[in-house]
């Protein structure tokens, strides 16, 4: 493993994002927070194992064309981003077209963050055909799914929690 700027970028990003998650006032029941953290990394793992490995193999993560242990840090980085996406969604409670604008704004922010990570820190290598436009479509799709997932989790939690469980309005 070659430890350089991309690893430092990942570590610093992870620390900043998890610090934000920890200092924000609690918004969800503990089990729901855990589920929202897992959905971020789970989505990243699913996509990377399908698009970043043979037979598709459209990009590399970090310095090597094969996965290394440090790539786990990159997968963990998606957890606090997904949590913040849903935290702010729950706080703002957009309805109708505002949901679309919310997803679009976060998709653009995701591409911007990815552009910085690729351009300045070489976190990903897109020499195999991946383009930022694909990332935008992925973010639109995954965040639309995440909004749907949010509503399903909220509905299931409120329907099945025991009487003493915390409310989630």
From TrEMBL:
Protein name according to UniProt: Uncharacterized protein
Species of origin: Paenibacillus mucilaginosus (strain KNP414)
Lineage of the organism: Bacteria, Bacillati, Bacillota, Bacilli, Bacillales
Keywords, alphabetical: Membrane, Transmembrane, Transmembrane helix
Transmembrane segments: 6-24, 31-52, 72-89, 101-124, 136-153
């Amino acid at each position: 493993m070659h430890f350089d700027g991309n690893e430092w970028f990942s570590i610093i990003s992870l620390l900043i994002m998890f610090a934000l998650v920890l200092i924000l006032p609690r918004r969800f029941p503990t089990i729901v927070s855990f589920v929202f953290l897992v959905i971020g990394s789970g989505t990243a793992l699913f996509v990377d194992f399908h698009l970043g490995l043979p037979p598709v193999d459209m990009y590399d993560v970090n310095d090597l064309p094969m996965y290394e242990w440090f790539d786990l840090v990159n997968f963990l980085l998606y957890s606090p981003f997904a949590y913040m996406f849903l935290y702010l969604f729950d706080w703002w409670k957009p309805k109708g077209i505002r949901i679309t604008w919310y997803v679009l704004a976060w998709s653009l922010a995701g591409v911007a963050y990815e552009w910085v990570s690729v351009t300045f820190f070489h976190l990903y290598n897109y020499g195999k055909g991946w383009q930022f436009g694909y990332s935008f479509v992925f973010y639109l799709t995954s965040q639309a799914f995440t909004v749907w997932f949010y509503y399903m989790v909220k509905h299931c939690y409120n329907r099945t929690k025991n009487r003493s469980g915390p409310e989630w309005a």
